[in-house]
Amino acid sequence: MNMRKKKLLALMVTSAMMTCPVWADDTTAATGYESSGSQTVTSGSAAAPADDQKTAVNTVVTSPNDETTADAMKAAKSGLTGYETAEELAAIAAGKSPAAVQQETAEAVHKENEILNPAPVDTTPQITGDKVSYMSGTSDMQFDTSIPGYPLAVIQAGQDVVLPYGEAVTDADLKPYVDKVATSVTVGPVPEAQIEQKLLPQLAMRVGDAVNMDYIRHDLNVIGATGLFSTVKPSFTTVPEGVSLNYTVQMNPVVKKIDIVGNESLSTGDLMKLVATTPGTTLNTAVVSHDVANINTAFANAGYMMSRVSDVRLDDEGVLHIAISEPRIENINLRGNTKTKNKVIMRELRMKKGDIFNKNAASRSIQRVYNTGYFEDVNVRLLPGQRNPKDVIVEIDVTEQKTGSVTIGAGYSDSDGLVGILGLAETNLRGTGDKANISWEFGGNTDSNKNYIFSYTHPYLNDAGDSIGFSIFDRESEYDDYDEKGNSVAEYDRRTNGFNVTYGRVRSEYVSDYVTLETKRTKYTDHDSGFNYRNDAKDPDNKGYDFAGMDYLGKNFGRTNSLTWSHVFDNRDNVYDPTKGKRLSFTGTWAGHGMGGDFDYFKFIAENRLYYKVGRAHVIAVRLMGGIATGDMPYNDLFTLGGADNLRGYEDDEFRGNKMYEATVEYRYPIAKKIQGVVFTDVGNAWGGVENIPWYHENNKLHYSGGIGFRITTPIGPIRLDYGVGQDGGKFHFSFGGKF
């Protein structure tokens, strides 16, 4: 920005964030939050009933007399209630009995209620066969597959204490045999002797041991945990020396086929890859538990946190059926948006009614709603479905913030005289999401009244989210040119006018392209101090700069017609205060070269912004930039470094050139509510292409700086305060706008 050195006699700027009444919707409209007991009293007319409501027969109540009493007695004897509609009375007149008409009416009302309030629908897939018991949280289980067709789950030492198989027997069942010597310990019947040989070394009860309740329960857990058996229980046979112990088992049936039903979000093929149960082998409930845990984990990792295996059954044909339950979004309710229209919020959502609920889609939706900038806070709640309690109702509660601003100011200087400032901005025009901004400076010695900027953006042209916007500008401001050492060499007024149109095309969730067509004209309007570029570019201070034979104004001021294309990838969690993600952009500009204007050049710049969250609210932000240009670029279109936006600790736009690189690292940490501290370091340089700027001597020297700063959120927008120390000393920077 330019460095003003005028003597201001008076300056008053009043800014207020507000939504102008003329932009708001009719304040008499219902908000949706009125209490049920509130009433609206109108004069001269009654509210008409809604089209879908049944109009009741008007009943006038008068003082009873003999005639009305007789009529009532007659109606009661006839079966009439006195509240029949015209259609019902016509049906009775045609010969139907009042009781039949009332029955038909009751049935019609019942059917209507069923349509308006349907009974809960259970969408859980129904499967047949015997239920297969499984346990959750066993995805890390190990298996012994050395016996073909009979996989055995292997439990680790100590895990048996949490298994339920040992509870199959009571103390009363075991008490008659406690302390008797076990003369033999076997497991059977089993189809393969290897199965018993695998189990016996893991048992606590050994031949010659006295029967112990804890040992028996340990062994039941070890045998049951293999997953091969549907039942396991101890059997004792009394012998002269003591008892013979056999752990009686019943093998599970053989699985011949696996069928997964109810899944939509993840394919059957992908789920089958997670299933370790193999057709042709004996059913192993431990393996099934392992499979269920893997499937549930896959759903959770994909964001389907509420989708899971709901049932597992094995039918008489040997088919293992695995049922998947995937809760859907029954409805999406919006609360708190009194200004913003529902469609503006709904179009940002990455979920819709009827979708399977996905946590990732819900999180992204909330990010997008917040990133509109219309809301101070956005929260989501999940409620049980009304038609099916297993489904969910998503309730999004927003707190709107003021999106309009009015800026009024005035200033006085010797050169310009009294200047008025008026600014109007609205980022959510009438709740539609459209953005409009106008800034106008009027008065002054020139009395031109043409110092203005007007811009308008429509963010949603279609369902894909394409956007279009334009700007018209005619601005005149004081500007300072600096040499390579940061010394001011010229102070002058520069006027820039023109317009541009930008079309944004959404490619995917995080990728967009932007095309901007612009024409602008820069003009050297008035000399204030230093070099006078208009007056033959004389060197009033005799600093030795050679302008001989050079048309300085012609080479650096004039019309530029350009076409700019930008390709942007942006997955930041919060565009205003990012804590994770990145923004990668590539921008190319084609100026002149058949498009007209006074300059022909190509310009390309790449930028990458990275964000890393460290701790609860601390963030490391990194920005890397590089650019290159070719052709006859004017002074004002060269790459610039220095100032509040990139290379702090130096003058604004101190370094220029047709080549540029820059890197910034910031450590951001919270200090108080709406106040953030920053520690930063900047490095970079711009050089080349300065042949038309005699007073600027380029160099490819690396420039660097470091410092501290603060970010303050105020009612008139974010404020940045930075103090940077460069190679030539320190400099304070004050600026408006969000952080990179």
UniProtKB/TrEMBL annotation:
Residues 327-401 form the POTRA domain. It holds the Pfam family Omp85. It is found in: Membrane. The keyword Iron-sulfur does not apply. Coiled coil: none annotated. The keyword DNA-binding does not apply. Residues 32-45 have a biased composition (Polar residues). Residues 1-24 form the signal peptide. Residues 32-53 are annotated as: Disordered. It comes from the Bacteria. Keywords: Cell outer membrane, Membrane, Signal, Transmembrane. PANTHER family: SORTING AND ASSEMBLY MACHINERY SAMM50 PROTEIN FAMILY MEMBER, TRANSLOCATION AND ASSEMBLY MODULE SUBUNIT TAMA. This is BamA/TamA family outer membrane protein. It comes from Megasphaera intestinihominis.
